[in-house]
Known about the structure:
- By secondary structure, the protein is an alpha/beta fold.
- The protein has a single domain, classed as Purple Acid Phosphatase, chain A, domain 2, CATH 3.60.21.
- The protein is built from 6 helices and 17 strands.
- The chain has helices at residues 44-58, 77-90, 104-110, 146-158, 178-181, 188-196, and strands spanning 11-12, 21-26, 38-39, 42-43, 64-68, 94-97, 116-117, 121-124, 127-131, 163-167, 201-206, 213-217, 220-224, 231-232, 241-242, 247-253, 259-265.
- It has a 7-stranded mixed sheet, with helices on one face. A 6-stranded mixed sheet has the order 7-6-5-2-16-17. The chain has a two-stranded antiparallel sheet with strand order 3-4.
- The structure holds fe (ii) ion.
- Fe (ii) ion binds next to loops.
- Residues 28, 30, 70, 99, 208, 210, 227 line the site of fe (ii) ion (FE2).
Amino acid sequence: MRNDTIAQQPRSIEAANPAVIQLVQITDSHIFAEPCEHLLGLNTRRSFERVSESALNNHNTVDLVLATGDLSQDESAESYIYLARCYDHFCIPTFWLPGNHDRVETLQQHFHGKWIHAEKQVLIGDWQIVLLDSTIPGEVDGSISSSQLKFLNTALRAYPDRHALVCLHHQALDSGSEWLDLKGLKDSDQLRQQLAQHDNVKGVLWGHVHQESRRSIGGVEWMSSPSSCVQFKPGSREFSTSAESPGYRHLNLYPDGRIKTAVHRVE
Ligand SMILES: [Fe+2]
């Protein structure tokens, strides 16, 4: 999406029940072109299929799916074509943002489907969801560019009466894993300052850290989520994986601005 070329128009999605909007976040799927390829001993396609199946089977209604970056591991067209087929098969509106392992141009070109939408601002019930691009081409760590900050502020100001969930790939708060936080969001202070100026922001959601966390600060829920493949060990100083299972995050958004959320894992 590289900032200026993103779809700037909001997309409206009708919730099955506006009294409880239900979202599923699937993040960091790290899919390869080659179906049998493994990441740190795990077949990422098989793991993604288990996680996504579980996400759809566990909940009667899912209003929309958020794919929050690192969709691909190898930036291949084949990885995005495979994912587009999978996500489109869910028949649930799906929105995406890129991670550091994605190549945005290839993603845009091949991650298409009837149910896959490129818009980065979603209106649903009493909420809006804003999807930011925190990637820096060729870098692992992230940054929120001035054009993305402007997009965020414009989106939040345009709908002051809607509660907002802001999504990005890199961590908006440090994870506590030193090696990951060295590869986090360079200007997270600036992002948090911007978010603090809008009292309609109720949640901030990210991937990248391959581990779950949730903190409630000043009426805002700050959430990270497990990867649909390999997990990183919380609190580690150096690169370290965890034996925890792959998973996804489910969120309920209520008309009064509350967020109820839980992480679900598969065996
Ligand atoms: Fe990742």
